[in-house]
Specification:
Length: 115
């Protein structure tokens, strides 16, 4: 008796740069949290991540991007912080647009799967 199996294509994307991994969904979430909280410290807390790890990820992204994605704000009366640059904001948009195209393709191909 033939069973009717249902398959789904799952896709996870990340972008590599010559020196190694540049961007994936985890780093995108970190960028979004920096934008939301105005600081790397608070973004790290929100993600239950050590500040040191978050800072290393930001440094790595800034180094591998064509232009820095995050800029530190110097401490003043209210203390320092961080914010996304225009390149950082564009990076988030571009990543989600690319992810959507790839997910749409995977969904379409799923309809044709037969084994």
């Amino acid at each position: 008796m033939e069973e009717n199996k249902k398959y789904t294509i799952a896709v996870r994307i990340w972008i590599e740069e010559a020196d190694g991994p540049f961007l994936g969904i985890g780093k995108i979430w970190l960028l979004e949290n920096i934008a939301k909280t105005g600081s790397i410290t608070n973004a790290a807390k929100e993600m239950k991540m050590a500040y040191r790890q978050a800072w290393q990820l930001v440094e790595e992204m800034n180094k591998r991007a064509e232009k820095p994605l995050v800029e530190k704000l110097l401490g003043g009366k209210g203390g320092g912080g961080a914010r996304l640059t225009e390149a950082g904001e564009r990076t988030i948009r571009t990543f989600y647009e690319l992810e959507k195209k790839i997910q749409d393709f995977a969904r379409k191909e799923t309809l044709n799967l037969k084994f």
